[in-house]
Amino acid sequence: MAGYKWILGGEDACEACRNLAKDIHPEKPERPHPKCRCTIVAVFDDSKEDKCVNDDTIIQRAELLGHDFEAENRQLKALYHEWQFTAICRDNSVVEVTVNIEISGSELEEVNTLLRDGGSNAESLAMAKSLELALHEAMDEIESVCPKCGSDKNES
Fold first, then answer.
1. CB-CB contact of 101 with 127 (8 Å)
2. Are 63 and 108 in contact (CB under 8 A)?
3. Distances (CA, A) of 94 to 48, 142, 147, 148
4. How many separate domains does the chain show?
5. For a pLDDT cut of 70, what percent of the chain falls above it?
6. Read out DSSP for 107-155?
């Protein structure tokens, strides 16, 4: 690994964060203030490995952007989640993808059972299932938009 790169959390980032984003840091930098929304990503030395695969892509952040549901007779029929993932590819490029997930049918049965029984873990279980599905879909999308991964596939 070559070091760490500071990725700004938005256009309204403070001056301290903007300064951190200018360089590659040999050690992981400390956040300059509470509630910092920036992302710190590992930067690879690409000379050691020139094949891009899913194992080389690091998910730096997963954020639930929104959710909705369908219910009937106090039972969930479907959950909809929109996730955004920020990843760093093997070539050190930062990629953001957004995926939409629907949880329904048998995947939702366990959540409904917990809700009927008054279980407090129903929401956590739904989020875990959603994140698992979203991550799988996001990795495929990241691989297709990552400059190095996309070019590796085209050369095959």
1. no
2. no
3. 19, 10, 10, 11
4. 2
5. 81
6. HHHHHHHHHHTT-TTHHHHHHHHHHHHHHHHHHHHHHHHSHHHHHHHHH
User: Do 2 and 67 belong together in one domain?
Assistant: no
Nearest to 59 by CA among 81, 28, 99, 89: 89
In terms of domains, do 25 and 65 share one? no
The sign of the dihedral angle between the CA atoms of 30, 94, 53, 147 is negative
Query: Which residue range is the domain that position 21 belongs to?
Result: 1-43
27 is a domain residue: yes
Let me know whether 30 and 76 are in one domain. Answer: no
pTM above 0.70, yes or no: no
Q: Which region among 14-23, 42-51, 65-74 has the lowest average model confidence (pLDDT)?
A: 42-51
Residue range 81-105, pLDDT digits in tens: 999 988 877 777 788 889 999 988 8
